[in-house]
Write a structure and sequence with these properties.
The complex is a heterodimer of chains A (256) and B (344). Chain A is α/β, with parallel strands linked by helices and 256 residues long. Chain A is 34% helix and 29% strand. The radius of gyration of chain A is 18 Å and the shape is globular. Chain B is mainly beta and 344 residues long. Classes of the chains: A alpha/beta (256), B mainly beta (344). The A-B interface holds A 53, 55-56, 76-78, 80-82, 86-87, 89, 92-93, 95-98, 103-104, 106-107, 110-111, 114, 163, 167 and B 293-296, 298-307, 309-310, 313-314, 316-318, 320-321.
């Protein structure tokens, strides 16, 4: 069955603080596919996902990004989110004074309003929250606190998972969601992500470690170097990288 | 009548260190048509002549028009707050009001004063004296919502006996020319004084808060905590002076002033000042000025919340920290649901 392209990136050049980070990147993601970005530090992995989220630091100097057949670069941050793009931050910011539950309900209703649907009320929200988090035994007490405020690293990542479950995005971008997590926490992340794979949702994941990839089997592994994708393969490429290292598979670190 | 022309009245001058950055010219030179003492709609209040010596000359402005002072004495615990609503209606008028609030020994009370108006080109000079007996506790909340072309000078002095507790929350919402003066000389042990303020300005509002706290006795505590959110061309002045004298061993004196500037033309002049004459104490001050966090705004928007709504969420989070300090739940709810329309 032919799969539709959800995201197409053509010759993308991005600068941060006048320094060119992405130097002509091409990437195509179809519905239901799992893509992994790997590469040494500073090659542009986070810059790519931040650019897709319209991060203020990332200045697109050239290129085209098409998302669901629309020009992504014409959309602001919240529009991209309401169109189904979700970026899980490496280190989610703390927002003291904004209740986590109120924030999440507001986000859900923003998306529903954007889609022309009626807003959900507090009762429906709580019911849905209980259902979704209950499936994965995720602690709902995080919702009673202020958004990420005083959360441990693991709690912040769990909070991102709760948001994923409730917002049900179409393109899920995970920026090192496994960093700092123990074995059990990584399994929870994998269970949540795998539960969302319905053949339509797509994943773009950044990770350095094989443990998460064992649990979420990628369709494509891309290696970034010096702002471009230099090698693409399937899961076996990640295994080869894990065994031999970058230089051994012909990737010279451009920062050295 | 012009305030400039009142015989024998010593007026504050912009050149004086205390009143630096405050321009009284328009107010003191304005030719008001009338003067009036604003009377409370409360029967049986005692009336005295106010002959007290205050630190600030601002008290004398009200006294020069009317030196009489009403007294509210609270000598039993009251379950609910006392609400005093001031509604100024006449144009071109100097209004004055002077009140002493006395709370008896071991008594707990709360008072809310709301200042609103529907007039133009008027001025309100308000004097307040708070006296707390031993172990008394008062939560005093003030809302100022006076609109442009009007002015207000609010002067408050405090006298606290041993182990008394005073918590003041001051909400500045109007776009008038407003000056608040708070003075507290802590002459007794274990007195606790908290002054919280939210200054939320817009248009060409100018609000100044002049705060003077002197610790003269052991184990006395003061905590001055202000937040400003300033839009358009509004201007705020915050001058807090806390002095801890040699006799005030083991005291605590804290100050904090956080400001968010929401436009290029908004201005804050913040001058925290600690004078510490002993080593055995805790004291700190912190002043920050900035804008809403870009990173926080991005995070909220990245979940689909519009820029405007994200902005309002963060602003409310900043401002609510002052509301959250209020202990009395009725008062807290009153502040959260306050709307000027209910009164004018």
């Amino acid at each position: 069955m032919k799969k539709n392209t959800i995201l197409k990136i053509e010759d993308l050049k991005v600068s941060i603080n006048d320094k060119e980070i992405l130097k002509g990147l091409d990437l195509e993601i179809k519905e239901g596919e799992i893509h992994v970005l790997m590469g040494t530090n500073g090659t542009g992995k986070s810059t790519l996902v931040k650019t897709l989220s319209a991060h203020y630091d990332c200045v697109v100097t050239q290129g085209k990004i098409t998302y669901k057949n629309k020009d992504l670069l014409e959309m602001d941050v919240s529009t991209r989110a309401n169109e189904g793009i979700f970026m899980s931050f490496q280190s989610p910011i703390e927002v003291a004074g904004v209740n986590n539950s109120y924030f999440l309900k507001t986000a859900m209703n923003a998306k529903r309003t954007y889609a022309g649907l009626a807003e959900i009320d507090a009762m429906e929200f709580l019911k849905l929250l209980k259902e979704e988090t209950g499936k994965f035994n995720i602690d709902r007490k995080l919702l009673q606190r202020d958004l990420n405020d005083g959360f441990s690293g693991g709690e912040k990542k769990r909070n991102e998972l709760i948001q994923l479950l409730m917002l049900q995005p179409d393109l899920i971008m995970l920026d090192e969601i496994d960093s700092g997590l123990d074995v059990d926490a990584i399994k929870t992340v994998a269970n949540v992500i795998n539960s969302m794979l319905d053949g339509k949702k797509s994943i773009l994941m950044i990770t350095h470690y094989d443990r998460l990839l064992e649990l979420i089997k990628p369709d494509f592994v891309h290696i970034l170097n010096d702002g471009k994708i230099v090698k693409t393969g399937d899961y076996s490429l990640a295994l080869e990288l894990d065994e031999k290292g970058y230089e051994a598979i012909g990737i010279k670190d451009a920062n050295k | 009548m012009q305030i400039n022309n009142i015989d024998g009245l010593i007026l504050p001058k912009k050149s004086e260190e205390e009143f630096l950055k405050i321009n009284f010219d328009s107010l003191f030179s304005y030719d008001f048509a009338n003067k009036e003492t604003y009377e409370f709609d409360i029967m049986g209040l005692e009336t005295v002549v106010d002959e007290e010596k205050y630190q600030s000359v601002l008290f004398d402005i009200s006294r020069s028009f009317d030196n009489k002072q009403k007294i509210i004495t609270i000598n039993k615990n009251i379950a609910e707050p006392i609400f005093l609503i001031h509604k100024l209606k006449e144009n071109e008028t100097i209004f004055t009001n002077s009140l002493k609030i006395k709370v008896a020994k071991d008594i707990k009370a709360s008072i809310v004063e709301v200042f609103v108006n529907s007039c133009q080109n008027s001025f309100y000079a308000v004097n307040r004296k708070i006296e707390l007996e031993e172990n008394a506790s008062l939560e005093y909340v003030k809302i100022q919502d006076i609109n442009a072309s009007n002015s207000m000078i609010f002067s408050l002095a405090v006298n606290q006996k041993n182990s008394s507790n005073l918590e003041i929350s001051n909400f500045e919402y109007g776009d008038a020319f407003v000056i608040n003066s708070f003075e507290n000389i802590l002459n007794n042990e274990f007195a606790n004084y908290e002054l919280n303020g939210l200054v939320k300005l817009f248009s060409e509002a100018t609000t100044s808060n002049l705060i003077k706290t002197i610790h003269n006795e052991k184990s006395s505590n003061s905590n001055i905590n202000y937040k400003h959110s300033l839009k358009d061309s509004s201007k705020a002045v915050f001058k807090a002076k806390s002095i801890v004298n040699e006799t005030a061993l083991f005291s605590k004196a804290f100050q904090s002033c956080n400001t968010i500037l929401l436009s290029d033309d908004a201005t804050i002049f913040a001058q925290p000042h600690l004078e510490i004459l002993i080593d055995e104490l805790e004291a700190s001050h912190g002043t920050t000025t900035g804008t809403l966090s870009k990173e926080q705004l991005l995070y909220l928007q990245s979940r689909g919340i519009s820029k405007d709504e994200a902005y309002e969420m963060l602003l409310s989070a900043f401002e609510n920290k002052i509301v959250d300090n209020i202990k009395d739940e009725i008062i807290k709810e009153f502040i959260k649901t306050y709307k000027k329309d209910k009164y004018v």
